Amino acid sequence: MAQIKKGDFIEIEFTGRVADTGEVFDTNIKSDAEKAKLDIKNIKPFIMSVGSLMLPEGFDEDLIGKEPEKKYSIELLPEKAFGKRDSKLVRMIPTKLFHEQKINPEKGMQLALDGQIVKVLSNSGGRTLVDFNNPLSGKKVSYEYKINRLVIDEKERVDAIQEFLFRKKFDFEKKDNKIIFKVEKQFDPFVKVFAPKFKEILGLEVESEIIEKKEVKKNS
Fold it and tell me: Global pTM?
């Protein structure tokens, strides 16, 4: 059976655990999610491009040379997983900024701030100490995984990169060596920003075609 190489697209299922505790922090296997009592919606195997860092660096590197339909496991040090803890990412923020967002920060709380998950370390005297490190930074992690199949279909490949970069899927057509996404006007700059990444991964130029906003039909 063919070995996986950099640039291949694969469908993979995996479960990631904190090495020291065995706590599941990520999985796309329904049975593992249920055992860990994780509320993961639309759980399904992940389609990815090997070598494009769509998974942690050490995990991505481990895929090369592996074979489909076999199970593997790996343990990663922080520098090859979610990074070492950085004391510079622990910052003091005026509590009033949280109150303006109708948030009452309490010790131990995790919340989204500036597009990332942060942890409240303390809150006193009108100031809140916040940790911007990834919650898994500084931790060894392990993964058990299985490569289900090589992904050859071009639409599956394009849709996988869309979901990874855009967090949504647009209709598209392919002309020659070019992908043309059909998007509403507000999404056009978004597509342009990620066009170089698409070319890097898929080797295809990217353009967008502006379409009218789709109206939601109401039942009469």
Answer: 0.84
Report the alpha-carbon distance of residue 137 to residue 144 in Å, rounded.
19
Task: Kindly report the CATH number assigned to the domain that includes residue 196.
Answer: 3.30.70
Calculate ∠ Cα 174-178-213, nearest 5°: 65
How many structural domains is the chain composed of? 3
pLDDT along the chain (220 residues), means of 10: 93 98 95 90 93 97 97 98 94 92 90 82 93 94 98 96 92 94 94 94 94 63
- Same domain, yes or no, for 65 and 95? no
User: Based on the number of CB atoms within 10 Å of its own CB, is 189 exposed (0-12), middle (13-18) or buried (19 or more)?
Assistant: exposed
**pLDDT (tens digit, 9 = 90+) per residue, 112-164?**
877 778 999 999 989 999 999 999 999 999 999 999 999 999 999 999 999 99
- CA 173 vs CA 161, 200, 204, 207, 220: distances in Å: 15, 19, 12, 10, 34
pLDDT, residue 215, reads 56
How far, in whole angstroms, is CA 9 from its chain's centroid? 16
User: What is the domain range of residue 114?
Assistant: 87-131
